[in-house]
Amino acid sequence: MATTRPATARLTDLLDPKFMARLDSLDLLSRKIVQGKLQGERRSKRRGQSVEFADHRPYVAGDDLRFVDWNVYGRLEQLFLKLFLEEQDLTVHLLVDASASMSMGEPAKGLFAKRLAAALGYVSLVNNNRLTISLFGDGLRVQLPNMRGRNYLRQMAEMLLTAECDGLSDFEKACRDAATSRIGCGVTIVVSDFLFKQGYETALRRLIGAKYDLYVIQILSPQEIAPELAGDLKLLDIEDADAAEITISPALIKYYKRNLAAYCDELRDFCTNRGAVYMQANSADSIESLVLNYLRRIHLLR
Amino acid sequence: MEFLTPLVGLYAAAAAVPLLLLLYFLKLKRQEAIVSSTLLWKRAVRDLQVNAPFQKLRRNLLLLLQLLALGMILFALAGPVLALRRGPGQRYVLLIDRSASMNATDVKPTRLDVARKQAKACIESMRAGSALSWRDQSDHAMVIAFDQRASVVCSFTSDKRQLMTRIDAIEAGDGSSRMAEAVTVARAFAQPSGGEGVAAAAAKPAQLVLFSDGQINDLEGIVIGDNEIVFHRIGESQDNVGITAMNARRSYEQPQEIEVFTSLANFGSEPVTRDVQLSVGGNVHAVRSVTLPGCRAQAGDEPFRPGEATLQFSLTHSEAGVVEVRQLGADALGCDDAAWSILDPPKRLSVLLVTQGNPVLESALRACPIERLDPCTPAGFDALDPAGFAVRQQYDVVVLDNHVPARLPPCMYLVFGAPPSGLDVNSPQELENQLIVDWRSQHPVLQYVNLTNLFAAKTHRLLLPRDAEVLAEFNESPALALLRRHGSTYLIAGFDILQSNWPFEPSFVLFCYNALSFLGAQAGNEQRHKLAVGDPIAIEDGLNQAAFMVICPDGTEVQVKPDPSGDVRFPGTYRVGVYTAKTPDGSPHFYAVNLLTPEESRIEPRDRIEFAGVAVAAQEQGVQQANVPMWPLLVLAALVFVCAEWLAYNLRIRI
After folding, report:
1. What backbone phi and psi angles, to 5 degrees, belong to B26?
2. ipTM given for this complex
3. DSSP letter string over A102-168?
4. Closest chain A residue to B651 measured between Cα atoms?
5. 302 residues of chain A, pLDDT tens digit each
6. Any long-range contacts for B230-233 (C-beta under 8 Å, 24+ apart)?
7. Chain B interface, mutation test: which of A111, A259, A264, A282, most B Cβ atoms within 10 Å?
8. Which SS3 state, helix, strand or coil, does residue B71 take?
9. What is the rounded distance in angstroms from the CA atom of residue B510 to the CA atom of residue B491?
10. How far from chain centre, in Å, is Cα A223?
């Protein structure tokens, strides 16, 4: 407890203690029954030595005789093997965008993303899942790999609080690195605004695989959803200083909103078609309701 | 490098540069705002453009505007001219008055400069020949500048640059204005000179364009056709005070005494008071104030009369010098504010009387105030040194009484009887019983001389050359004639006085007095040193073969070489002032060139000038641009199109 106290104290900067108390009752859920490394609290698809019966299969030479179902042999005089579901631990990968664009918005998207990551990380650690948190900008910037147990809460909180949102974003490179460093199976959650000029498709494709569930959480600020700009403007991109000269008109706002909606829909369709789960969040929303309601609704948490 | 129309360039720059800057600042005014990503905004702008109405047209609009701007510039480069005149090429003769009155400064800088400017505007509006046109429709022009004589500044050409350069080269003069010669020259040049194009152009007579103040002296003698001449009036004011007469002469009896007569005229309508300064050799002797009444304008039959005043100065000056009378008030015309006269040192005449014996003549001559009278026989005269130096050095006047000498040394001659040979004067026969029918009583020789009763029993019939001046006439022959040849002056009476009743007439003594006085004045070169503008300076001693250096009033020096006969002539007395002629060794000769013409001092510009029977009114406006060069408009249009294109482009970004 001596080690966790300051961690929780630090973690309270991100999460409300009451909220954390409610998170204690939650666990991460994988839609795929995943194969973990250690024998954990989760059913694995790999049949093994477990108490939970899964199936029978005919005996073939070389099988372990210990698993032969002698009762069935007695009745049918045929050798069948009993198969069990093995309970294993769940690997959770949190990929949090820390590029400069996340620092925008009121409230800031970056802070929202960190709080969300903290909440998900908290749930993972509390439930003894294997947690890897990565912050990415133009590539993976900081990574805390393979944390397990409450002891890591302090480390996670420190990392999230100290990281700054700045620099360019290279989502593709970040995903490539994350995908190669990923081992085992579990859940990958990407938290970002997904406003990548070079596109997100290739990058997300790298993360989608048989072993991992992919959750895509897009965070947009209220200013991005409903811009409150006016007049003749020269818009500067905070990341690459790209300029766009515009004159705000109702027509332009209309087209912007339409484009934003289309962009989000594209992202959603891309995810859905590939078995990933997409969710959009507004940085002005309450993190509690998001985690407690929406994430449960999409069966990320239970 | 030359700019034909620098003002247009300036105007365009004044319009375009601020506009460009304005647009530039408009562009700069865009506020900057930082967003997380421009990705969606750019898509939105693109969508907006794509979905904006008339998108295709808009894209074409930019191209169209660019093409139009380029087209305008290219069109301007081709130098189109909007021809307000049509038909075949016109021909113009520009007559530019450069007489003294055109030096008036009532219009700045001077009337001549304004005339030049207007003439150039006229040239500018001529249609230029184009390489692309298949017919020569270009206008041709020639330029004639005139004062008392006309000079062709530039003959017919369509080269505007040449015409303008030549117009700029017209020099101001102080002469009087006479236009007849200019009109004659213009008509002569305007005659078709053969050649197809020229002949076609000459079907229409050349248009004369006159730039003048209208003060032209010989208008009554010029016959012009209807609409043959277009008159552009130059000048505004008539206020001017000028010296209209001036003479300085030594008293015949008292040679040290000098009388200076001068009369001034005020051509303005208001009375003015002016100071008149008399100076001799640069030293001021007297300044007098004189009030001149205003002029009396022409009304009905009453002619124009300037307000006049006469001044007389007396001074004692026993040496040679230059007398200057100057009115000190400033006015529009400067060249009539001063007049000069050359004084020779006082001298009494020495007279040589060549006679077989004529007591009447001798006693009459002796009665005159002369230094000495040397009688001499004809043989003695012919025996004098052949070069004639003795005669010229010793005697001012030679009186020939019935003697025809073998040679005539340069001198002043009073001839009675047979005229000398070698003067183009013939006397084919003798006439008898001749009575005087007419004489010029105004001439200085015949002042106070009454010839009514003069009767000659025998006289030579004189056949005179055209330049001789006849002073008195018998009923069949000239009686008295004045003739100048080779620097000598001959006063010829074609009869022997002993064959007439003249010696018994009181007029004879008076005549002798006047004749000696006149010839003496001629001998003193008083008249010869007094020139009007344009009169040549002539040094006719026929002896000195050295070149003369003539120093003009403005300080320029001109070397003048004598002609084969030894005479020196310098015709370039175009400005008033004192000219100095110098031989390298000899003493300087002074020549006073004066304006002294009231016609030129009267600078009032005329609204209409009356030729013989035809009145021409001055043009209401100045020179009209007949051909408008279109390139400034085109460049302006190109500018407008470029601006429109810029605007269209920006609107495309914005909407």
Report:
1. -60, -40
2. 0.80
3. GG-TTTTHHHHHHHHHHHHHHHHHHTT-EEEEEEEESEEEEEEEEE-SGGGHHHHHHHHHH----S-
4. A247
5. 334 444 444 788 888 888 888 888 887 766 554 444 444 455 555 555 555 677 788 888 888 888 888 999 999 988 888 877 655 667 889 999 999 999 988 889 999 999 999 999 998 888 888 899 999 988 888 888 888 888 888 889 889 888 888 888 899 999 998 888 887 778 899 999 998 988 899 999 988 876 788 899 999 999 999 998 888 888 899 988 888 888 888 888 889 999 999 999 999 999 999 888 899 999 998 888 888 888 888 878 77
6. B230/B616, B230/B619, B231/B608, B231/B609, B231/B616, B231/B617, B231/B618, B231/B619, B232/B115, B232/B118, B232/B618, B232/B619, B232/B622, B232/B623, B233/B605, B233/B606, B233/B607, B233/B618, B233/B619
7. A259
8. helix
9. 15
10. 24
The answer to whether A255 contacts chain B (CB < 8 Å) is: yes
Q: Which of A165, A246, A258 to mutate to test the interface with B (most CBs of B within 10 A)?
A: A246
**DSSP percent split of chain B into helix, strand, coil, nearest 5:** 30, 30, 40
Mark residue B620 as left, alpha or beta (left: phi above 0; alpha: psi -120 to 50; beta: remaining): alpha
Position of tokens 């309970």? A87
Helix %, strand %, coil % of chain A (to 5):
40, 30, 30
Q: Does A234 touch chain B (CB under 8 A)?
A: yes
Query: Taking CA atoms, what residue in A is nearest to B29?
Result: A232
Q: B55-77 and B631-654 are packed helices; what angle lies between their axes, rounded to 10 degrees? A: 160
